[in-house]
Known about the structure:
Distance between the termini: 14 Å
Subcellular location: Membrane
Transmembrane segments: 61-80
Keywords: Membrane, Protein transport, Signal, Transmembrane, Transmembrane helix, Transport
GO cellular component, one term: endoplasmic reticulum membrane
GO biological process, one term: protein transport
Structural class: mainly alpha
Amino acid sequence: MFTLWSLIEASLLCLNAVCILHEERFLAKFGWGASAQVQGFGEAPTVKAQVLNLVRSIRTVAKIPLIFLNIVAIIFKLLLG
């Protein structure tokens, strides 16, 4: 059954997946590494550059809160199944 908890759990799993992506080992194979952001001055950022910035921002900002959210999710699963 699709519930609010399953939606929260799915988003938590997706955030975990984004945070553990290794840029040099995984993303660089597909051309999404750190060297892929070569732009000229005044040019609008591409969609690829914006997605890479989003991944880096999530990795920077959400690392510590994700630890606590994972602990809460694990305790919730242990207590309520």
